[in-house]
């Protein structure tokens, strides 16, 4: 008899795939706010890999990556179990926006609310209902995000220096990877899980909304399969993705001016402090200012414009790249 | 020279005049204003009216007009260009099609022309714009986008007589392969149709997709095609580029989805399809296949939903019908 895995209405006690829904809150019309859950179980007990996507509702590339991975996954080949929640922030997901439309208070970024609060704001309650089963079942965790543009490809793992987490990052194999110090991204599922002893990986692949390609989805699903091979959850040789570039930290730069904006750099490109990363124009089309990199490093994400108010994310820079 | 005054943009001599046109009032009492630029050539000639972002999230047109304006010199220009690159300013700021202040049915600005001085917010915006357009424009080019970055098609108001014929010639000079000579009974209330009925040859460009879904290349290419139209109209010197043969359509089919879900398109803009061709795939929340979307008509794909999510009733596909090579 296998140990039961119960996440909402998805209840897995034997080999195969089950789908269900997990209630993570209540909608204002009294209907339950439910997020989809899939559990795939192999013939033997083993690791439980928890994967989720769309913590930020408009980061659809992760949902499609998880879906593609699940469609290709043969339960008979699997050792252990995969628990997948591909569309976590369901009300934001429906509205093509980062945060829930029902969050009326400051602090609505779900990935800053873990482990959540049962009597907090709508987003804090969602985090609570998600994190309970994650903590109960997960032995390893992969969280799919996007940045802003289609060419985004980087990853973070936690805890930095943890051998298992680093092996997951290497098996996923995005060249640009941040071993995340535990004092950044407070309240993220990754850091919270890492502090609870669960080796964790965040993948940043593709951009918000429709800004991703079927090729990125296929590639990311294949790399996820390689993580499972590395964890001996799937059979087969582990692909070696080659040398990686690790960072000491990232600079998350907000713009202090608004306007029409066109980027001048691409993801993965090295920049020096002071380099032009984009250009601002006024309503008449006149160039009014150049946006410059405040630090040297590798471009992890860049705002695609075409419009930007003051305070939006201009650029993410991976600091002090070193080949490893 | 005759004075051209559009809001605070006032042009009396050759050169560039910039300003803003009041198109409504914001709820905090400040004016709702759209930017205006008038480029006046040294030689007399026709007045070409350009506008973009009638739908606030169709930014490619704004960038295209801006790039064309930056390349114009009053010394080299014959006639006048009047450009309003950001018409629906409150929708533009919010990255959405319609004004956030429009609370009633009928908030699509491109169905509200010629507008109403005492109508809803969008009807009043249309009135403020169209009053100026009708007074000054000899030709109208209106820049739109569809949904994905690979969109490239155009349409002109195919009204009888010289106005329709001039629209046709502008479409040839712009040179997008997929072009619809628009029957007079479609798109009522669009700036294009209303202007054509008022005797102004009128042309719509659909280039790129909404929001950030466009490239610098499509902007530069479109700006060059716009300059080619100006060469054709005798407003710029130089040889008119022949962009070659076009597909002209009898009409378009504007197809709404009757189901919702996660959606991935299976065709690109410009593809030829048959009635019944699979144009996309639906999936449920668990990633299981949930059906195929099929084309109801044969023709050329003008626009297709980008996904990745679609509610029932969204625009699934635009199909150019009965393509014939001309």
Describe this structure in words.
The complex is a heterodimer of chains A (324) and B (326). With 324 residues, chain A is of the alpha+beta class. Chain A folds into two domains: 5-242, Aminopeptidase, CATH 3.40.630.10; 247-323, OB fold (Dihydrolipoamide Acetyltransferase, E2P). Helices cover 21% and strands 35% of the residues of chain A. The model of chain A has no long low-confidence stretch (mean pLDDT 96). Chain B is α+β, with helices and mostly antiparallel strands. Chain B has a ten-stranded mixed beta sheet, with helices on both faces. In chain B, α1 (59-71) packs across α6 and α4 packs across α6 (216-232). Chain A binds chain B through residues 19, 36, 38, 60, 63-64, 66-68, 70-71, 86-87, 93-94, 96, 149, 209-212, 214, 260, 262, 281, 283-286, 304-307, and chain B through 18, 35, 37, 59, 62-63, 65-67, 69-70, 85-86, 92-93, 95, 148, 211-214, 216, 262, 264, 283, 285-288, 306-309.
User: From the helix content, strand content and strand pairing of chain A, which structural class follows?
Assistant: alpha+beta
- The CA-CA distance between the termini of chain A, in Å, is 44 Å
CATH superfamily of the largest domain in chain A: Zn peptidases
Low-confidence stretches of chain B: none
The H-and-E topology of chain B, N to C, reads as EEEEEHEHHEEHEHEHEEEEEEEEEE
Number of strands of chain B: 20
Rounded Rg of chain B:
20 Å
Largest sheet of chain A: 10 strands, mixed
Strand content of chain B: 35-45%
Which assembly state applies to the chains in this document? Answer: heterodimer
Beta-strand content of chain A: 35-45%
Helix count from the secondary structure assignment of chain A: 6
Number of domains of chain A: 2
Q: What's the alpha carbon Rg of chain A, rounded to whole Å?
A: 20 Å
Which CATH C-level class of the largest domain in chain A is it? Alpha Beta
- Helix content bin of chain B: 10-25%
Kindly name the structural category of chain B. Answer: alpha+beta
């Amino acid at each position: 008899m296998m140990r039961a895995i119960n996440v909402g209405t998805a209840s897995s006690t034997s080999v195969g795939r089950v789908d269900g829904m997990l209630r993570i809150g209540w909608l204002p019309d009294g209907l339950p706010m439910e997020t989809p859950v899939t559990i795939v179980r192999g013939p033997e007990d083993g690791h439980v890999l928890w994967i989720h996507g769309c913590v930020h509702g408009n980061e659809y590339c992760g949902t499609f990556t998880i879906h593609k991975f699940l469609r290709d996954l043969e339960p008979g080949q699997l050792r252990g179990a995969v628990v997948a929640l591909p569309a976590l922030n369901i009300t934001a997901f429906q509205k093509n926006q980062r945060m829930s439309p029902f969050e009326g208070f400051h602090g609505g970024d779900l990935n800053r609310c873990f482990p959540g609060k049962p009597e907090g704001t709508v987003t804090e309650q969602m985090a609570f209902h998600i994190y309970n089963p994650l903590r109960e079942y997960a032995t390893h965790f992969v969280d799919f995000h996007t940045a802003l543009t289609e060419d985004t490809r980087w990853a973070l793992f936690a805890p930095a220096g943890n051998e298992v987490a680093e092996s997951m990052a290497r098996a996923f194999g995005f060249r640009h990877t941040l071993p995340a110090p535990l004092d950044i991204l407070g309240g993220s599922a990754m850091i919270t899980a890492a502090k609870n002893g669960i080796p964790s990986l965040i993948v940043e692949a593709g951009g918000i909304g429709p800004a991703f390609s079927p090729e990125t989805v296929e590639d990311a699903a294949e790399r996820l399969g390689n993580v499972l091979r590395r964890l001996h959850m799937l059979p087969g040789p582990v692909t070696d993705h080659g040398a990686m570039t690790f960072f000491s930290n990232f600079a998350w730069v907000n713009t202090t001016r608004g306007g029409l904006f066109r980027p001048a750099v691409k993801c993965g490109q090295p920049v020096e402090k002071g380099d032009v990363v984009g250009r601002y124009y006024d309503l008449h089309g006149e160039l009014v200012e150049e946006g410059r990199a405040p630090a040297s490093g590798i471009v992890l994400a860049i705002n695609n414009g075409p419009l930007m108010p003051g305070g939006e994310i201009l650029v993410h820079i991976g600091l002090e790249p070193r080949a490893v | 020279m005759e004075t051209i005054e559009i809001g605070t943009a006032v042009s009396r001599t050759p050169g560039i005049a910039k300003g803003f046109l009041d198109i409504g009032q914001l709820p905090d009492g400040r004016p709702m204003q759209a930017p205006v630029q008038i480029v006046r050539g040294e030689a007399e000639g026709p007045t070409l009216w350009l506008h973009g972002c009638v739908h606030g999230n169709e930014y490619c047109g704004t960038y295209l007009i801006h790039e064309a304006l930056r390349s114009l010199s009053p010394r080299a220009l014959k006639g006048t260009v009047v450009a309003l690159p950001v018409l629906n300013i409150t929708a533009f700021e919010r990255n959405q099609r319609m004004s956030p202040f429009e609370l009633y049915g009928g908030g699509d600005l491109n169905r509200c022309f010629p507008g109403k001085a005492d109508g809803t917010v969008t009807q009043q915006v249309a009135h403020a714009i169209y009053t100026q357009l009708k007074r000054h424009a000899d030709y109208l080019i209106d820049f739109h986008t569809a949904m994905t970055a690979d969109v490239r098609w155009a349409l002109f108001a195919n009204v009888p007589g010289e106005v329709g014929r001039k629209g046709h010639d502008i479409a040839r000079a712009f040179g997008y392969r997929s072009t619809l000579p628009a029957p007079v009974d479609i798109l009522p209330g669009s700036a294009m149709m209303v202007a054509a009925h008022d005797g102004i040859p009128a042309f719509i460009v659909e280039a790129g997709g909404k929001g950030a879904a466009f490239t610098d290349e499509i902007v530069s290419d479109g700006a060059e095609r716009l300059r080619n139209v100006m060469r054709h109209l005798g407003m710029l010197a130089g040889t008119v580029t022949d962009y070659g043969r076009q597909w002209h359509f009898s009409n378009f089919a504007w197809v709404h989805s009757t189901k919702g879900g996660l959606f991935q398109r299976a065709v690109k803009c410009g593809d030829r399809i048959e009635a019944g061709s699979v144009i996309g795939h639906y999936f449920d929340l668990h990633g299981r296949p949930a059906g195929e979307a099929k084309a109801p008509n044969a023709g050329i794909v003008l626009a297709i939903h980008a996904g990745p999510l679609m509610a029932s009733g969204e625009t699934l596909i635009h199909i150019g019908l009965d393509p014939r090579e001309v």
